[in-house]
Amino acid sequence: MRNYYSVLLILITLIISGCEPKVETMPIAKPAVSESLLNPDKKAGNSSPEEMYGNAIEAGRQGDLNTALGLLNDVISQKPDMVKAWYNRGVIFSLREDYQKAIEDFNKTVSLDPKNENAYLNRGLAFEKLGQPQKALADYKKTLALNPENYMALLSIGMMENKSGRYTEAEKYLTKSIKINDKFMEGYYNLAFAQLKQGKLNDAKLNYSFAVSINDKFAPGFNNRGLIHMIQGDWDKALMDLNRAVKVAPTNPSVYDSRGLLYLVRGNLKNAVEDLNAAEKLNPNMSGVFYARGYLEYLGGNNAKAAELIKHGKSLDADKEEIKWLKDIARLSSGNNTGKVMDKMIKVIEQMAE
User: At the N or C end, where does the chain have fewer CB atoms within 10 A?
Assistant: First the structure.
């Protein structure tokens, strides 16, 4: 399945804060020089827990996670009831992708502060990363029980509903998320995905437009809006968007895969081959690339090579997500030239995949 159609593409920014209502974010930055963050005249052992905590937060904001973690370890050893230290160490562990340790620290956080909504939210994210969706969902719902306006929890549930194929439910949660925070690009992107899967093409196109208006270098938005233009038969607008996606993400295979498909639909077979080859070079395991290349070989009269490529594509498409997506395109574009080409392509793929 094309990467840009994965609802898990967007990573939710982990929240760093104390227990105060104001929420801040800890960006992932280049490692900072820790000496610039610490008081050179004071050794850690002579600093108070609050001073060390402040230095840890500053280190985290600068991207120096090792310094932040070491300081928070010292804080917790000296003051084990400091809620914000446990919470933010959990955030550090999450940023380091040590999700089990993160969960343990978030467990401690909520044991000390049962109303800490951010701890439940981030524990849910950690559970989701560990492949435990039911525990994740329970934590997201606990977050909403504490604060119905937590747009990150609404977004997270909406993304889970998308992943499960419950697009109507996903749309409800994601719409609520955007009403609370209308500047959050990921909300529009995931809402558009839910609408696209329901066939609400104009609504989806509008929300992809909102996403790229917030970030004009957001390749997934251009990619998916371009595919909607292709589905609707507006090939020129599709090409404009897909060219933009390639420009802002020249090393991502999905944008070449999508543009290659557009060229195939338009009958520009030379460009289709070039883009599909570029996608394969960047990622040799994209089933859609081999389906499309197989169809191109079929059009050129090389049935043996076509069957070889299509069968290889099928072997990479174990969950059948890519062929389902191609059928979605055919269904949504039924009656126009895109739909006619897609119907023929799917028929050949299914015949040769046997």
Answer: C
- CATH assignment of the domain containing 126: 1.25.40.10
Whole-prediction pTM value? Answer: 0.83
Q: What is the pLDDT of residue 46?
A: 65
Residue at token pair 């209308």 = 182
pLDDT digits (tens, 9 = 90+) for 93-134: 999 999 999 999 999 999 999 999 999 999 999 999 999 999
Is residue 25 situated within a structural domain? yes
Tokens of 150: 């937590």
For 31-51, write each residue's pLDDT tens digit. 222 332 333 333 445 689 999
Out of 112, 133, 154, pick the residue that ends a domain.
Answer: 133
Tens of pLDDT, residues 303-342: 999 999 999 999 999 999 999 999 999 999 999 999 999 9
Sorted by sequence, the CB contacts under 8 Å of residue 101 that are 6+ apart come out as 90, 93
User: Considering its fold, how many domains does the chain have in total?
Assistant: 2
